[in-house]
Amino acid sequence: MEQKLGKCGIDCNQCNAYKATMENSDELRKKTADEWSRMFGAVIDPASINCGGCQGEGALFSHCQVCGIRSCASEKGHQTCADCPDYGCEKVSAIWAHDDNIRKNLEPLRG
User: Fold this and answer.
1) Which domain holds residue 68?
2) CA distance linking residue 3 with residue 14, whole number of Å
3) What does the alpha-carbon distance between residue 39 and residue 105 come to, in Å, rounded to a whole number?
4) How far apart are CA 83 and CA 77, in angstroms?
């Protein structure tokens, strides 16, 4: 399966919101909503677990709609943060702290 990266470097193919959308799986939506609700101390409705990836034109998970990293890269006209002269800024490095694989996904794209 070809890697599909979000602006920050997250591999959409590994994201349960993306997988639930691509598989149209209500079971995975519920499982993901339950897991993320516990993880983030929020109430997440399974119906909101829909995302076609931030590079596409389709549905976005609610957090992805307001993601500062996504909007920053889009405003600057970058496909991903790897294209940015401010690569490694405070915004994107905050997400890397949670999963170093996200940063590693971008490294090969650096010019």
Assistant:
1) 12-109
2) 9
3) 24
4) 9
Task: Give the whole-angstrom CA distance, residue 109 versus residue 111.
Answer: 6
Residue 6 lies in a domain: no
DSSP string, 44-80: --GGG-----TTSSS---HHHHT-HHHHHHHHTT-SS
* Residue range 62-92, pLDDT digits in tens: 888 888 999 999 999 999 999 999 999 999 9
In a domain, 105, yes or no: yes
In a domain, 22, yes or no: yes
pTM here is 0.83
Work out the burial of residue 70: count CB atoms within 10 Å of its CB; fewer than 13 is exposed, 13-18 middle, 19 or more buried: buried
- The structural domain count of the chain equals 1
CA angle 56, 107, 111 (to 5 degrees): 90
